[in-house]
Design goal:
This protein is α/β, with parallel strands linked by helices. The chain contains 18 helices and twelve strands. Helix 4 crosses helix 5.
Length: 500
């Protein structure tokens, strides 16, 4: 479906300021919504909300594609409910409020979440709501909470290294573990209950202020996840060891001579189609419980995907495998009606991928930082956009506008300056605001601005650098006080000027 002309801000909740080492669903989230509303914005884009594992990427290392991240739960709200004592809520100060120290945060917040759970058990408040939640979400929740309890009982070992009866999901073995791990299972149910409750409250607050939330579905899931453990037949796995036989990635290109090897198992689309894509439809249904609009990451993988034998150390020796994109999106549309989907169609996109996107009227993406080579036909230049487009100065995978500009080549800087009517790059007063204005002024129906660019931040505030495997996903902004009235007025003026 296409969208009305609008604009918004890109910020993952972990990047919000808080007293507990990581952004959460508390007061700073509500302050951001208030800022967006005051600034004339109607969209808030986030990254996937699932519980993260190794290196805390919200895209490729989630323990579930359905569950919420416990680290986002606001402890202050739990205290207001009487589940924690206000005077015992110690802040976490690791000396760097602009970076998440995940190891410290996990230990700190888990301690309080377990305290809240114990208090919950000792009261009768909300137990009926808790039971209703568990029943309503049982289709994914039952597998997830058992998976997490088993993961802890097995010292974090991947599920395919558990007792073979558990890896094969033999019913008697699973029931024995449910009986043995009742307390841990119920704890994880409680955590998900509180996450959903707090998120729905925040989402409703945003919707009441005419702000829609754009969420994200990453195409692939982590091998060590409740999703793969619960439905191994949907993935290309060895039937004896449950190791992936093929893994996902992208082939060699201009940027990488060996391609990218992501390590996620690829889908057995033939098996998925025998169920009329039931797992995928459920995935979108649950995601739409979180958000109003879904951004589909790596959209081209629904038309064809790069499959690499799991024994390979690079992505060179892979092959393109056709995926049933048209049949899948037809089935999804029959199940859900209008599909509020945005397609991440960056990179090398074939005519077949573009045709699939256009067939279902999904807006594609344009990144201004990719525009300024030396070719006026570059599709990322604003004069080449179609209306059914989402434009960004940069995404979570790009540097900030200032950081990018500081590393741009002389040729890029000169081309950009001439494009916007300057004789020299030195005449440009603020590159981030130039790109913000260009995005808002463009014909693209949707324009999304990273908060870092609004806050005039350089490359030290980058969220993710795909060229490195460590240290990403940690940036936070220091204080809600940075969202000033002057900044709001400036953004509002541009938004109104360009009829957003």
């Amino acid at each position: 479906m296409s969208f009305e002309r609008a604009s918004g801000v890109l910020l993952h909740p972990t990047s919000l300021p808080s007293r507990y080492g990581i952004g959460d669903l508390g007061s700073a989230a509500y302050a951001l919504v208030d800022f967006l509303a005051k600034s004339g914005q109607t969209l808030w884009q986030i990254l996937p909300l699932g519980p993260t594992g190794y290196e805390h990427s919200p895209y490729i290392m989630n323990f579930s594609t359905f569950a919420g991240n416990p680290l986002l739960i606001d402890l202050e709200q739990l205290a207001k409910e009487g589940l924690l004592a206000h005077d015992e809520l110690t802040p976490l100060d690791d000396g760097n409020p602009e970076q998440v120290n995940f190891e410290q945060v996990i230990a700190h917040k888990t301690h309080f979440l377990k305290q809240a759970y114990k208090q919950f058990l000792s009261t009768r408040d909300q137990h009926a709501e808790f039971d209703r939640f568990c029943q309503a979400q049982a289709a994914w929740l039952d597998d997830f909470v058992l998976f997490m309890a088993l993961l802890e009982a097995n010292d974090g070992k991947s599920w395919h290294h558990w007792d073979p009866a558990l890896a094969r999901r033999e019913s008697s073995a699973l029931q024995a573990q449910r009986d043995m791990l009742q307390a841990q299972i119920k704890y994880h149910q409680f955590v998900q209950f509180k996450f959903f409750e707090q998120w729905q409250k925040l989402r409703q607050y945003a919707n009441n202020k005419n702000i829609k939330i754009i969420g994200d579905i990453s195409i692939y899931v982590c091998h060590n996840s409740s999703d793969v453990w619960a439905s191994p037949e949907l993935f290309k796995l060895d039937p004896n060891t449950f190791e992936p036989t093929f893994i996902a990635g992208v082939p060699p290109d201009y940027f990488s001579a060996t391609g990218q090897l992501w390590g996620n198992p690829v889908y057995n689309w033939e098996q998925a189609e025998t169920t009329n894509f039931a797992w995928w439809i459920q995935r979108f249904q649950v995601t739409l419980q979180y958000v109003d609009i879904v951004r589909v990451d790596h959209f081209r993988g629904f038309e064809a995907y790069w499959q690499v034998p799991a024994s390979e150390s690079t992505a060179i020796n892979g092959e393109w495998i056709t995926a049933p994109g048209e049949r899948f999106f037809n089935a999804l549309g029959k199940a859900l009606g209008n599909l509020p989907i945005m397609a991440e169609d960056l990179g090398i996109i074939t005519p077949e991928v573009d045709a699939l996107r256009q067939q279902f009227d999904f807006p594609g993406m344009r990144i201004l930082m990719f525009a300024f080579g030396d070719d006026p036909n570059n599709p990322y230049l604003p004069h080449n956009y179609s209306r059914n487009t989402v434009v960004y100065p940069g995404t979570h995978d790009n540097d900030t506008a200032i950081g990018w500009w500081q590393q741009a080549s002389d040729a890029e800087q000169l081309f950009l300056a001439r494009y916007f009517g300057y004789d020299s790059p030195t005449e440009i007063p603020a590159i981030n605001w130039l790109l913000i204005r260009a995005a808002l002024a463009s014909v693209a129906d949707l324009a999304i601005i990273p908060l870092q660019d609004l806050l005039d931040l350089d490359g030290q505030s980058r969220m993710n650098d795909p060229s490195r495997n460590h240290g990403n996903w940690r940036w936070r902004y220091r204080s809600s006080a940075l969202l000033t009235n002057a900044l709001s007025d400036r953004l509002l003026a541009l938004t109104q000027l360009y009829s957003r």
